[in-house]
Amino acid sequence: MSHEEDVSSRIALPMPTMIRFLTGFFLCGLLWMTAFNSASMVLLPQRLKDDGFADPNGMIAQLNAAGAIVALCANIVFGSLSDRSRSRFGRRTPFMIGGAIASGTCLFLVAVAQQTITIIAAWCGLQLFLNALLSPTLATLSDRIPGNLRVRMSVAYGLGTTTGNALGTMLGAMFHDQKTVGFVAAACLLALDGLIVTSIWPKEPSAANLPKAGDGVAAILKSFKPPTRGASDFYKALVGRFCLMLAYNMVFAYQLYILESYLGQDAKQAAATIAVLSSCTMAASLTGMIVSGIIAERWGRRKPLLIIAAVLLACGFLTPRLVPSVPGFYIYGVLAGLGYGTYNASNQALSIDVLPNKDEAGKGLGILNLANTSGMILAAVITSSIYAVCGTYRPVFIGAALMALISIPCIATIRSAR
């Protein structure tokens, strides 16, 4: 662990300040995830179907693909730009407020746009500016939170996104027959996210007196360059995260199809199973996040918990292969939820530990977040390809378990974190 981390770990935040940061991180995750999930999971698919678009399923695939590509780039771009900011309002605050307002506006445009191309453009805008909110928010963990409190803040943010995941589906269902009203409600939640969070947090110090960042296009482009010196642990963390996200999404994103094809359930049975499975996964994830967060803070270690998370995920993926039944899937939901919650509690803290340059936390965390998006994209390609070649999802469970286990040596050999 670096000297800088040792020093920051000994800095204590006053209790009222710590509560303000915890509340802000929780609300940030809650608001954006509630808004995004209500639109992506319910309101948008229903709107495309009700408004008579020729191929709603195909259009959803186009939106997801285009949005993922934009998100891949936006995370690094806005992380880097916020690192370079010298605003008197701070490095992160202007991006958080502006990104939230712009992404909320784009979400509203998704609701009112009438042409396919304009809907795709608005959706890409949503993904672009959503990352202008999220990248600087997570970089705040490095800028303003002492090392010994980062797990606690990560848990608060994770609890917010997990709760928002469920509330978003509920909000979408509530406005199922009034989609425009639902879109407006979601857009307002998202647009206000940055303003609410930065109002709760202590005011960010001015960045006007920081050393000036280089001017010109060449300097800006150079700021996007990935780290090369002293970055071996950084890339180990990147590969480890990628393997875990790939493994998780290989099964999670295809649960409905797996239940119908692998277990032979009809659409109604699969929907009922998914409802129970989602409840099991969410409850286990919240439990894993809270328990492992407490352990990580008291123990002062991140790596062992991430290794445990990988083992839990691998066991969860293998369960439906060994026990091909509905109870087997429920066991998968519990184990995968525990693993994912444990992973979320310590992952962001470990990511900051391995940053080669803390002054470029926005860029570094943006690069690490590439693992999330690329893992989701590649998981869809791998799972669909396996099913197309083998005609069954059985090999998917083994492949996902292997990917989770491959992450273990990557995490275990990191030297700059415990």
UniProtKB/TrEMBL annotation:
GO terms for cellular component: plasma membrane. Pfam families: MFS_1. The chain crosses the membrane at residues 21-39, 59-81, 93-113, 119-142, 154-175, 181-202, 238-258, 270-296, 305-323, 329-346, 367-389, 395-414. Gene3D superfamilies: MFS general substrate transporter like domains (1.20.1250.20). One of its GO terms (molecular function) is transmembrane transporter activity. The keyword Cell membrane does not apply. Keywords: Membrane, Transmembrane, Transmembrane helix. It is found in: Cell membrane. Residues 233-418 form the Major facilitator superfamily (MFS) profile domain. It is a multi-pass membrane protein. This is MFS transporter. It comes from Bifidobacterium callitrichidarum.
